[in-house]
Design goal:
- The complex is a heterodimer of chains A (about 300) and B (about 280).
- With about 300 residues, chain A is α/β, with parallel strands linked by helices.
- Chain A has a seven-stranded mixed sheet with strand order 2-1-3-4-6-5-9, with helices on both faces.
- In chain A, α9 links the parallel β7 and β8.
- The radius of gyration of chain A is 19 Å and the shape is globular.
- Chain B is an alpha/beta fold and about 280 residues long.
- In chain B, the strands form two sheets. Chain B has a six-stranded parallel sheet with strand order 2-1-3-4-8-7, sandwiched between helices. In chain B, strands 5-6 form a two-stranded antiparallel sheet.
- The mean pLDDT of chain B is about 95.
- Classes of the chains: A alpha/beta (about 300), B alpha/beta (about 280).
- The interface between A and B is medium-sized, with 30 and 34 residues.
Chain lengths: ~300, ~280
């Protein structure tokens, strides 16, 4: 029976603690739902370490642990807290290998979520990390993607940022790209918008449109495969990218990279340039199936 | 432990640091070195005393310094030629020509480089100590101890009871802003509030020895050491010609032997600088 993603993350974490004698750092880890059920029920003696509530210091403590080769997992329960937690990771852990030839490999689990969570805690905030050197960024939404990234982490000595989404934890499905030449439009969704983009794709296909999809998991370094470039170049209307970060986050940077390689039009849908309120009437949410479909139709027609 | 031997060996290290810094001073002045340089002249008895103490105890701690770290590097046995090459921007420098003055490191002596954020080394050193359980020394200044994340690190260290020593090199200045203009508390009192053994002393090597020799690394400790920066915060210049100089004081304390050691070391350092 296929497990939901939360069980895979839990299994990986258990193995990382028991087999690799590593440590998991974070705030409010034990009890309180065990990080949405992704953390095995273990404690400090097992390597599950409660950090102080001082967020900036927390990132530094984990950096120190990584420097001495512990390969820690660092859980940031809301990506909005990246603003505090990123300081020493970006400015020390990510630079250490290049400046001092001392790598500081760590596996950061930054969890995003949206919906009635207000102006700080919601959405993705990986663009903070994205612009700086020395980090690899991924956004897995499936079991196989997560396992592959963890295995890669264990072979490398880099800082890995895993941009997770709470809505993916119950997911059991794997996604498949549809990459062909001469399509009407190609969707390139990131993070939680991949679920909505898949639904939009099915709906558009039923209407007779030839729509492709490229699920973006490896965000930094961002490499476009040859077959992707060919498919985009031969597409009628280029690309529609979607994400749960602000439009002016990584979306436009990645879109520009695609334009440079393909010379095709790339449009983006992410969070609007406004603060989210707590009530659903004033929230700022990522594009859902209907808005993606409607934008795609607007582009195609 | 032989206190006489400690005093002489500490003096040798301090003298090495002083003459090294004086050579750097000249090269900054003449623009041979043309990036921000943070000279530790005047403060060298802090790392030299502590390094001599841990060396006599045969302990090789993890070291986390900040920007003013030449004396830490040299006192704990970092390769002097590699530091010269580093300051000259060469690839065979201790930090491969990337570290300049501020970000020097040495794997040989377990000294980790600094990124430039004041007090970041406190949090990072605490994490390294926690995960490795190795004795660790964190050198910060009287300004860095005001950083919120440094205070959080002190609190966590006390809770986890780590074998760690925080050394506050208290020269009274954040660049040129005096401590009395920035705060009304002492590092010793704050550390004590976190239940850390804490001390407030002068940079007299005998006093440092007496304070730390029996207790170092047995529990988390903070030692605030009052000292004097002889040169500018950054670059080659003198703020005040009347600043107390601990090295001269020790020469007076030890006598002729110190003068002879000091002269020999001065010549040795000059030679090394003239043929890096």
């Amino acid at each position: 029976m296929v497990k939901p993603l939360r069980e895979t993350i839990k299994d990986i974490t258990f193995k990382h603690l028991k087999k690799n004698k590593s440590q998991v750092f974070g705030q409010n880890l034990v009890d309180v739902g065990w990080v949405a059920g992704t953390l095995p029920k273990l404690f400090e003696k097992d390597g599950v370490i409660e950090l102080p509530m001082a967020d900036v210091a927390g990132g530094g403590i984990v950096t120190g642990s990584a420097l001495v080769g512990k390969r820690p997992i660092y859980i940031i329960r809301y990506q909005g807290y990246n603003w505090f937690n990123c300081t020493f990771i970006i400015n020390y852990a990510c630079k250490s290998k290049e400046i001092w030839k001392i790598p500081a490999p760590m596996f950061i689990r930054g969890i995003s979520s949206e919906g009635s969570i207000g102006p700080v805690a919601g959405s993705s905030h990986i663009s903070l990390f994205f612009k700086m050197p020395g980090i690899r960024i991924f956004s897995p939404m499936t079991n196989n993607e997560y396992k592959k990234i963890y295995n890669e982490f264990m072979k490398k000595d880099d800082v890995f940022y895993i941009s997770e989404h709470r809505a993916s934890y119950s997911n059991k499905k794997e996604f498949k790209n549809i990459v062909k030449n001469n399509l009407d439009l190609i969707l390139m969704p990131i993070s939680v918008t991949r679920f909505s983009a898949e639904k939009a794709l099915n709906s558009l296909s039923k209407l007779g449109f030839k729509v492709g999809i490229i699920h973006l998991v490896n965000l930094k370094p961002f490499n476009l495969k040859k077959e992707w470039i060919n498919a985009i170049k031969t597409s009628k209307h280029g690309v529609l990218m979607t994400d749960n970060d602000y439009k002016d986050g990584i979306l436009r940077t990645l879109a520009h990279k695609i334009i440079e390689k393909t010379n095709k039009k790339v449009q983006v849908m992410g969070l609007d340039d406004k603060s989210a309120g707590h009530h659903m009437n004033v929230d700022n949410l990522p594009p859902d199936m209907l808005t993606i479909k409607s934008k795609a139709l607007e582009i195609i027609k | 432990m032989n206190i006489k031997k400690y005093q002489i060996e500490t003096f040798k290290k301090a003298s090495l640091c002083r003459h090294f810094e004086n050579e750097v001073f000249k090269r900054v002045k003449s623009k041979i070195i043309n990036f921000p340089v943070y000279l530790s002249a005047g403060q060298e008895f802090i790392p030299s005393s502590i390094s001599q103490l841990v060396s006599m105890k045969k302990i090789k701690p993890l070291l986390f310094g900040q920007h003013r770290a030449h004396s830490i590097y040299l006192s704990f046995g970092g390769d002097i030629k590699k530091l010269i090459n580093e300051l000259l921007g060469k690839k065979n420098g201790c930090t491969y020509g990337m570290g300049g003055s501020l970000s020097i490191h040495s794997e040989k002596i377990n000294m980790y480089g600094h990124d430039g954020f004041m007090g970041s080394n406190a949090t990072i050193g605490v994490g390294a100590c926690f995960s490795s359980k190795k004795p660790t020394i964190i050198f910060i200044g009287d300004a860095a101890v005001e950083e919120d994340y440094v205070l959080a690190s002190l609190s966590w260290v006390a809770k986890k009871n780590l074998p760690i020593l925080f050394v506050v090199e208290d020269n009274n200045f954040a660049v040129l802003t005096k401590k009395e203009d920035r705060r009304d508390w002492s590092a010793k009192d704050v550390a004590k509030a976190f239940k850390i053994n804490s001390f407030d002393i002068k940079d007299d090597p005998k006093q440092i020895f007496k304070t730390l020799s029996k207790s170092i690394f047995k529990k988390p400790q903070l030692i605030n050491i009052h000292t004097n920066r002889l040169y500018w915060h950054a670059g080659a210049g003198i703020d005040n010609n009347k600043t107390f100089d601990r090295l001269n004081q020790e020469i007076q304390n030890i006598g002729k032997k110190a003068i002879s050691i000091d002269n020999q070391i001065r010549e040795k350092v000059k030679k090394l600088w003239s043929s890096p």
